[in-house]
Amino acid sequence: MNNSFELLIFLKQKELLKDAPKYWWPSHGGFETLIGAILTQNTKWTNVEKSIANLMQLNLLHLEAMAQSDIGVLTYAITPSGFKNQKSKRLKQLCNNILETFETFEQFQEEVSREWLLSQKGIGLETADAILCYCCCREEMVVDKYTQRLVETFGYTFESYEELKAWCEYGINENFDKIVQLYGYNITLNELYCRFHGKIVEFMKINPRV
Ligand code: 39A
Question: Whose alpha carbon is nearest atom 12 of ligand 1?
Fold first, then answer.
């Protein structure tokens, strides 16, 4: 394995996203993704799905509704994804900060920067990139513990999140034209990053010993 392009090819052959949504994250480009990116911290995805279903039933999956929500109701709704008190406070505060800074969710998607996200309580590098990539459709690849473990099995170790992310993005960028040909349609760099990260997560879920 010489670069991330070869890693993509290795994973692509396994057809890991055959039944998945186009961008892997089901609500790509929507408000639900912003919330999911925070809820998924330190928990399993199946728990996030339960919290999202609760929020949907309560009609809280809208920026204004969550900003104005009763904290007790919000905390109860997100209980399945753990750290309920901390996460509910952070979600409500984040929604209020978005309204104050960007006024609308659409303007937030257009204008938010990585720096702004990183200045929010409870948003670290991985969550900021998940929001940028999956919620704001930006050309930012998400890397995580799964990515780190997988590349380690191929002999790569990185000092930091940023170095691992740069390695993943570089091999894809350098071979972008070849990848578009392989896919057979004008896949965007955002879609490619979404699918590459999704493939890594799905591969690691079915190969837990890697
Ligand atoms: N860990 C995860 C996931 N597992 C996921 N899906 C499956 C669809 N998403 C969107 C985020 N994090």
Answer: 45
